[in-house]
Amino acid sequence: MSSAFLGIPTPPPRAPYATGHLRGDQSFPDAAHTALDNTQQRRNLGKATATIRGKRDRMADELPDWEELRSAGAALKADVLARLPELLERFEREVTERGGVVHWARDADEANEIVTRLVAEKGSDEVLKVKSMATQEIGLNEHLESAGIAPVETDLAELIVQLGADRPSHILVPAIHRNRAEIRDIFLREMPGVDPNLDDDPVRLAEEARKYLRSKFMSTRVAISGANFGVADTGTLSVVESEGNGRMCLTMPETLITVMGIEKLVPSFTDLEVFLQLLPRSSTGERMNPYTSMWTGVTEGDGPGEFHLVLLDNGRSATLADGVGREALQCIRCSACLNVCPVYERTGGKAYGSTYPGPIGAVLTPQLAGMHESRDDPNASLPYASSLCGACYDVCPVKIDIPSLLVELRHQHVEQSRYTAEAAMMRASSLAMSSAKRFTKAQRASRLGRVLGGADGRISALPPPLNAWTSARDLPAPPKRTFREWWDSEDGREAVRAARREAERGES
Amino acid sequence: MNARDVVLGRVRDALAAAPPEPVTVPRDYRGRRELPDEQRMELLVDRLGEYRADVYRCSVAETAATVAEALGDVRLVAVPGGLDGSWTEELTGRVEVDSAELPVRWLEDVDGVVTSSAVTCAETGTVFLDASADQGRRALTLVPDLHVCVVDLSSVVVGVPEAVGRLDPVRPTTMISGPSATSDIELDRVEGVHGPRTLRVVVRVDG
């Protein structure tokens, strides 16, 4: 056992570089530039985030003990992290005793292999899926497809994303960037057996999805889900949803495979009383979501006869190793922080390049998958994808201090990238500012920058490497005289004398 | 070393690298709340109404007539094996008893289902089913398009903590708050995706 503690603990590894969806192929600012040009997406996201955050605010304000629930939720998740080894072992024992089979996966590759093997052993070439962040994180669908197994997403939005060969743009409403007309076109093009006269009424579109998936629910033998909560002291698992596709997948097939991150535990069954209040109100802005399913192992004569649980690390232990950053593991995936974020609202989720977008994604992704894993690692840009306004902290149901985590990750990024142009400039400024003489010289030298200023005295494009600053904002051109030169000049002295006379008159 | 030992070892190493403080969980949120019957009833009816679930009030003596009214003119009704037989005495349609031996597919031909319930949370309008004999296996209340659920007012509690406290963790449990719904297309709410499109709750005020 590596738990035989030998003095210096080994830092656990991050998630694999290229497996799954924890890293985009370009930096956040580059991806954001493309996203900002998509006016339809901006309109849809603006409407969706404003609507959901309004509902969330009403639902949170309605409970007089909302802050007490948040404090309890935060403490419960912190307790889970502090006692994770014993709670995981307890959870495993309870699930096993109730007839479940527990598998452990070091990373995305191992989880994908376990799930694919289990499906193949059932002789199934098609598998149902409940919307799940964990399976999206590990790229399970792609892996199943490469093994000749067709995954069928059953959540309406995930189905729209899957049929459109697209990527999700929001944790809760992944197809929010699509309009009804586009969804109709995708269904007509991709959905087998679709009514050719389908119009774009959402009621008709949902009806088509119901028809298409109903036959799958009745005939498919294996389903794959994630989990919103795993209860350590009873081995109970829970899935929170709206459409009933979750209930179908958890109930109808012969075999159920659940993939769950190791941090998704709650200590005891009673603790669900906290999270079943926090999650729906924060997520969809409802008092309760239409359906919540809870199951413990296997029940004779009700639901799947075989239940497999895959416990996933994939960078979670690496995140846990950071005493500050580990707070991100408290996340219950409600997406409230996305809906209040001024950056997310404009760029949408795809710009973050990860399964986890928005403020929580900006602190979770770089910790799960690392941000210095290659030259120009796109994840290094994520801690900067924020104005640090703090709205995300205010709405977080488990009180994750996302702004402080962003600052901490920026610090770690600067510390680990000593040779960037920015770091070189900071060292130069430190040198210049450490002596009055050098500072005066440096200020005079800065006047050279005036040649870059336009007629309005503003610099809108600096040469590389400083263009990163001016790509998103203007810089005032340096003044003709420095403050010190003005202070020492005749008109400077006159201005100071005038001010003094004014002050003396005011006193007398 | 197997994956289990590796993952648990990593977690222990991670905690050793930055040992966490022990956590005390503050439990000063509301729990064990009580309200008189009328107020619980009023709260529940209001919340179910917001989900657009139909609510019927009746006495225990009126159960059969009210269940018949809630089911309406349906042809084939399924019930769980442990349901009180008197509840379905006034139905016009055929009544069949579901059991684990029957293939789930037979439920596709069923027009409506009648069940009891385990506990109900008034504040959120949530009915909890726990697969007891009078509620049936989970598929029974999922596949048919109409679910008539009988709730005794004595089993209606005020808040979520009171409801969770009455559950048996080992039983497969389904929490139902209104009919199945989606807001995935332009955030327009559409009711009835995969679960029952119609939920009718019969509350027995003296039950």
UniProtKB/TrEMBL annotation, chain A:
4Fe-4S ferredoxin-type domain residues: 328-400
Protein origin, superkingdom: Bacteria
InterPro entries: 4Fe4S_Fe-S-bd, 4Fe4S_Fe_S_CS, FTHF_cligase-like_sf, Helical_ferredxn, LUD_dom, LutB/LldF, LutB_C, NagB/RpiA_transferase-like
Domain Lactate utilization protein B C-terminal: 417-489
GO BP of this protein: lactate metabolic process
Molecular-function GO terms, alphabetical: 4 iron, 4 sulfur cluster binding; metal ion binding
Gene3D superfamilies: Alpha-helical ferredoxin, NagB/RpiA/CoA transferase-like
Keywords: 4Fe-4S, Electron transport, Iron, Iron-sulfur, Metal-binding, Repeat, Transport
Domain LUD: from-to ranges: 88-311
Protein name from the UniProt record: L-lactate dehydrogenase complex protein LldF
Organism: Actinopolyspora biskrensis
Automatic annotation (TrEMBL), chain B:
Superkingdom as given in the UniProt entry: Bacteria
Stretch forming the signal peptide: none
SUPFAM superfamilies: NagB/RpiA/CoA transferase-like
Ranges for domain LUD: 108-203
Classification via InterPro entries: FTHF_cligase-like_sf, LUD_dom, NagB/RpiA_transferase-like
Protein known as: L-lactate dehydrogenase complex protein LldG
Naturally occurring in which organism (per UniProt): Actinopolyspora biskrensis
